[in-house]
What does this fold into?
Amino acid sequence: MSIIDLLPSETPLKSIPPGEVVFAQGDSGNVMYVVIEGEVSVLLDGKVVETVRAGGVVGEMALIDSQPRSATAISRTRCLVSPVDAPRFMDLIGREPEFALIVMRVMAKRLRRMDAEH
Amino acid sequence: MSIIDLLPSETPLKSIPPGEVVFAQGDSGNVMYVVIEGEVSVLLDGKVVETVRAGGVVGEMALIDSQPRSATAISRTRCLVSPVDAPRFMDLIGREPEFALIVMRVMAKRLRRMDAEH
It folds into this structure.
């Protein structure tokens, strides 16, 4: 199941032009984005470490731990995303526990990638 | 709130003597442990990277993505832990969305530590 299928029909949407900084490493911010269409590059210290496509998420770290952004996200193409703030996040998890599992799988994948590069 | 407070009263418990390998890096396994008492060392490639105490969790990675264990866990002291398999995990998240958030915070902390060491 894709995380997109778990978003309620009244979900807020945001269109992002190509080449826009969605958020920058070190910024404060507590919104996660579910990518509905397009591609978002994730950069660590200026280096692209991941390309997130439809059904992926970016920005979950700062949402979860309220720390500054751990990475930079830049739209590679025109994107359609759904912003998820803390109250919506808890609401989504309450409605669909699977939503939490999908976000955790994203985090697990990133942790394993970091481990491999360690 | 501690994750221990979110465990239901009928939660299974397991006592572990000091110095026991709870799980080893590379093993298959799909059970997470909530530490109720004692301390568990987490080792990456033989090096201790973290000490998990009461209210912490170990083994969430393999539970979430069904991949081999990403690290080794050894009891530093006698421990009391609660094993959480996939069905219990989904049940706990469904009952208490906060449970998911606490596990995600653990993962976020580990990701930021890896980022810092990168």
